Description:
Blueprint: E1 2-3, E2 7-11, E3 22-27, E4 34-39, E5 44-48, H1 51-54, H2 60-140
Antiparallel strand pairs: 1-2, 3-4, 4-5
Amino acid sequence: xxxxxxxxxxIAYSHKVGDASLSSVALSNGSGRLVAVGDANGTVSLxxxxxxxxxPQQNEKNAIGSMLEREFKQxxxxxxxxxxxxxxxALELEAIKKDSTIExxxxxxxxxxxxxxxxxxxxxxxxxxxxDESKVDSLSGPAGLVTGEGLSQDGSA
Length: 157
């Protein structure tokens, strides 16, 4: 038995009724001093409590109502805080994902720029090589062959 009005966190009275677990409790309609307790084996025990535990004290109903209302509000506040924390964590994870996506996009853009630069340099090298080759071709004759002018029959100059 708990006395929530005076000692909310302490047991006011404890009495072993039987060895089996309790399954039901009922109060008498009259004075409220009689309590019937049933156990899992089907045994019913009748207990009588003192008048101070059976009769409500002055303002006890209002005090208990206020206490329950306070607990209800605290429970709602804790639930709201839990929702807020979960929402904040989800937003934080989303921001981290977004930041990593932005970083990845920056890296991809940098890599693409480097590839364009390498590609442009490669094409310039090919063009320069072709230009150099065409200069050599124009200096060496129409078919790219060295002409035989000024050479003797054995091919020496």
